[in-house]
Structures are given as C-alpha cells and as structure tokens.
Specification:
- It contains five helices and 13 strands.
- Strands 2-3-4-5-6-7-8-9-10-11-12-13 form a twelve-stranded antiparallel β-barrel.
- The protein is α+β, with helices and mostly antiparallel strands.
- The chain folds into two domains: 69 residues, no CATH class; 244 residues, Phospholipase A1 (Outer membrane phospholipase (ompla), Chain C, Beta Barrel).
Length: 324
C-alpha cells in the first residue's frame, strides 16, 4: 500500500509539473487530483492526468508528460533524439576520398546506429518554467561486413549540446507553439589530421503542432573559427565551407498515426550552387518493446566526414526510441 501511494504521488508530481509547464492549470482540477491521488490506482491516476493535461490532442505534451514522470529518477536517462540500429544500410556511392592511400576499399553495405540521451540540469534559469538540459548524441557508420578493410568504424560523430527549453502555448495560423529551445551545439568526429571535422553552432528551435502532426524549424549560426595555416594544422577551421552544404537551418515534420511515426527532414543552403538534403523515416510496431525502422537519406551532410559529398542511402533496422 505504501509503495502504491509513493508511486502515485510521483505520478501526480509529474502531472502537476506538466500542467505548470505546458498549459494553464485549473485549480479545482488540481485540488481534486491532490485529494484523490493517495488511494487512486496508478493506472487511473495516469489516465486522469493525461485527460486533464493533454485532452487527447497534444502529442508533444504526451512526450513531456512521460519525461516529467522520470526526471527525478537517478537511474533513468531520457532519450533526446531517436535511438536506432540499422544493421543493413546501402550507400550507392561511398566517399572514398578521406581514406585514399589506405589498404582496402569501402563497401556500399554498412551498419549505421544512433545513441541520443539527455538529462535535466536545472530549472527556472530563464523564467520559472524553463528547463536546462545537457544532451549527447553519437552517430556511427560501421563497415561491419568489410573484413578486407578490417571492418572499421568509418565515421563516428560526437554531438554534445546544452539547451534551455521554454514551454509555450500560443497559436499561429492554426498551429500551436508548444516549445522553443535555445542551445549551444558542438559536433566533432574526433579524428586527427586531414580527417578531422568539427564545428560549433548557436541555434533556436521552434516546435509547433496540429493534432498528431509536429513541425520543427531550427535555424542556427555557426561560431566562426580561424583559418588553418595548412591542412595538417591541428588548430583552425576543419571545414571552412560547411555552411555551403549544411545551410543555416533545417525543417522537420513528424506525423504520428497510431503506433506508426513518419518523419521528414529538409535542409537547403538557399544559394548557388544549390545544395541540400532530405531524410525520410518510418517507424512501425514490431512486438511489445521494439519498433521496426526504415530510413532514407539523399543529399549533403549526413555525416561530418561526408559533409561535402552527396550521399544516397537506404537503411532498415529497429528503433529503440522514437521522436514522439
């Protein structure tokens, strides 16, 4: 009985936190929850919270709700971006230039996976409902089936970032703005010499929703670096023209239909010569715990080592966590 009461209070705290950070709370509804939470089964309490807060309309609030429930649990790390494993990906034209002079040839077939986690650092630094997060994303490309080339990890990108989450609740043209995020992002492949790639960005992310569809616009500003004196110089800009391929922001839309999630990412440099990228994703139910995942990428900037080379890749695998 005590354990049920304790867990019930934890759920209530998560519910109240979500109410305070996403919508205008109704005092009578909160008072009712406070008085009934002690003896209410956890499943019923959760359903009551979700009904009071989400009203069956907000997929973003649904994710925030789940995150608030575990934010004080020291044994849990929260997903940031999707976590997935694609054991089979096919790249129509692998970029061989960075590996010139090495024995062996790159294969079209390789493994791609992404691990992305975040945890809350502080609350209330930009207003009482603001949340400060630290996040880390690792994306790797593994020539696992290339025994002649010693099956190397062809590229691994490390992306730590710090951002402030500012919950919102205003509408524009029928779209409701739920969240604005302001952040500092570093991305590097940790390589030495001519294979080294890294850059730093300041960004703002504006997230809107309409029913079960989410729209995200994320412009960024690259923090400039000094030019290298020569290609082997360890200091200075590793990729001086990266904005010409990545552009200055990206647009993403996510559509959730039942247990299926469809995503689209678009980037473009809006310049001549015109360069951009498109990424399509589809996750679908596959058992109780895992989801199947299909991803297609075409364009520039899939990875840092290939930022200036067009990539055309199709991959299939599993998703451990999704966008929503």
């Amino acid at each position: 009985m005590k354990r049920r009461k304790y867990f019930g209070h934890r759920l209530l705290l998560g519910c109240v936190a979500l109410v305070c950070t996403t919508v205008t709370a109704d005092d009578s509804a909160l008072d009712h929850l406070k008085h009934t939470a002690v003896d209410m089964p956890t499943s019923e309490l959760r359903a009551t919270c979700e009904k009071s807060v989400i009203n069956g309309e907000s997929v973003i609030a649904g994710r925030l709700f789940d995150e608030r429930l575990i934010e004080n649990n020291p044994f849990v790390l929260t997903a940031h971006r999707p976590n997935y494993l694609l054991p089979l990906t096919y790249n129509a034209n692998p970029n061989k230039t960075p590996y010139a002079g090495l024995e062996g040839e790159l294969q079209n077939l390789e493994v791609k996976f992404q691990l992305s986690l975040k945890f809350q650092v502080a609350r209330g630094i930009l207003g009482k409902n603001s949340l400060l997060f630290f996040a880390y994303t690792n994306q790797s490309y593994w020539q696992a089936y290339n025994s002649e080339f010693s099956s190397p990890f062809r590229e691994t990108s490390h992306e730590p970032e710090m951002f402030v989450l500012l919950p919102q609740n205003w509408s524009l043209f029928g779209l409701r703005n739920r969240v604005i995020a302001l952040g500092l992002n570093h991305q590097s492949n940790g390589r030495p010499g001519i294979q080294s790639r890294s850059w730093n960005r300041l960004y703002a992310s504006f997230i809107f929703e309409r029913h079960n569809m989410v729209f995200s616009f994320r412009p960024w500003h690259r923090i400039p670096e000094e030019k290298k004196t020569d290609a082997s110089d360890p200091s200075g800009d590793d990729n001086p023209h990266i904005e010409e391929y990545f552009g200055h922001g990206e647009f993403r839309t996510i559509y959730k239909h039942g247990q299926h999630t469809f995503s689209l990412m678009l980037r473009n440099n809006l310049d001549t010569p015109n360069r951009g990228a498109v990424e399509l994703g589809w996750s679908f139910p596959m058992g109780d715990r895992l989801k199947g995942y299909v991803q297609y990428f075409n364009g520039y900037g899939e990875s840092l080592i290939d930022y200036d080379t067009r990539v055309n890749r199709l991959g299939v695998g599993i998703a451990l966590t999704d966008w929503l």
